[in-house]
Design a protein that fits this description.
- The chain is an all-alpha fold.
- About 90% of the residues lie in helices and about 0% in strands.
- The chain contains 1 helix and no strands.
- The longest helix is centred in the middle third of the chain and has 35 residues.
- The model has no long low-confidence stretch (mean pLDDT about 85).
- Keywords: Membrane, Transmembrane, Transmembrane helix.
Length: about 40
């Protein structure tokens, strides 16, 4: 039971980190584009 719970928590945590990492990368790209190509 505990092993299953730890597995689920690990998966959720990994998924959350992946999402945050993806958003961070996207934000950095947008920021870089904005700086290099001002409107």
């Amino acid at each position: 039971m505990f092993a299953i719970a730890n597995d689920i928590n690990g998966t959720v945590l990994a998924g959350g980190l992946a999402i945050v990492g993806g958003l961070g990368g996207y934000g950095a790209k947008v920021l870089k584009d904005h700086i290099t190509k001002p409107k």
